[in-house]
Amino acid sequence: MLKTKNLLAAAIIGLCLIEANTAFGRDVSVGLSKVQDLSQAIASENKNAIANFEQGINLYKQGDLKGAEAAFRKAIELEPNFSEAYTALGNTLDDQGKPQEAIAHYKKAINLNPKAPGAYFNLGLTLARLNQLEPAIAAYKKTLSLDPKYAKAHYNLGNALYEQGKLTEAIAEYTEVLRLEPTYAPTYTRLGNAFYAQGKLTEAIAQYKKSISLDPKYANAHYNLGNALYAQGKQTEAMAEYTEAIRLEPKNPIGYNALGNAFYAQGKLDEAIAQYQKAISFDANYVDAHYNLASVFYAQGKLTETVAQYTEVIRLKPKHAEAYTGLGNAIDDQGKPQEAIAHYKKAISLEPDFALAYYNLGITLGREQQVDEAIVNLKKARQLFQAQGNKEMVEQVDELFPKINNQTN
């Protein structure tokens, strides 16, 4: 009775792939273009506040966060109602890893000037980074209620909606960005990701290609185009895009991981291993690359190496159910069935609907003459496989029942 191996970790096309171009990031110069207007709002004796504010903006752009922070604080000391300085100070604090302090300053800016869209926008960015998507979305929407043509807000609202799985709404926001800023390449890639998530590969590919036509050096677009082509079964074309992404960003591990998956699918295991190891060389904590490397080692029968890689996955991500199942397979093959059973059960505790874990647990229990428990787990596996529409595995489970029952006769 054969266990079922784990699949490779899927290629990821989430937010982490779209951050290379930061043009639509935080509004770092909020209020800078309105210094003349500020002079009317701020008492003439506090013109030094404006000078400190301008100095802070310049220092911020130069990367001198401490200097910028001091300048913004001085501006606020000179003029306590200087809302733009509170927003700018929030930016500086957030970049120094102090998001809660940043949020407090954005909110102070909003209290002082409720009609300034920049403070709401930057508040939204910080909240989104903290994965507080609902309040981030509310902040972006408030920004847009004040300035409907604020392209950055539409873009980041689209990102937050995408993260929530609200793909139709995200697509609407990205489409609006393109109406306002038709030459911004990352938006086409984001739009492509949304279509990809909807299973509309042809539409996704069109968007990725448009992104590349605007910015041929945009590695993320090449990478995501590779994913879409790979999903269409066009492995050669996909590998060409992954290779181009690697050429453009040779220290970005995701391209190597994806290229490794493509080699694995072609049965070129040594080449796959080389790519996964290259990915890990650039990011030792890259969970998917360790997991995929373990899967290839297992396919080669290298059990010691397999165990080491799955163990590393679990160290990095203790709730990785698939890694516990893979580890169970390898340890069972090493002749340690009771340890394997413990790992399968751990996988199930982490992911109660993990059909493969129930299946492999049932097989191992059956081999250990624990027939009643084996049948319970195989029945659960069958139920889950049937719900998934996996007829092949349902039939495989059905074939196992009489074999296990015969063990008691």
Automatic annotation (TrEMBL):
Pfam families, per database record: TPR_1, TPR_11, TPR_2
SMART domains on file: TPR (SM00028)
The keyword Aminoacyl-tRNA synthetase is annotated on this UniProt entry: no
Statement: the UniProt record of this protein carries the keyword Repeat: yes
Span of the signal peptide: 1-25
InterPro entries given in the database record: TMTC_O-mannosyl-trnsfr, TPR-like_helical_dom_sf, TPR_2, TPR_rpt
Domain of life, source organism: Bacteria
Keyword entries, A-Z: Repeat, Signal, TPR repeat
TPR repeat residues: 49-82, 83-116, 117-150, 151-184, 185-218, 219-252, 253-286, 287-320, 321-354
This protein's name: Tetratricopeptide repeat protein
Organism this protein belongs to: Komarekiella delphini-convector SJRDD-AB1
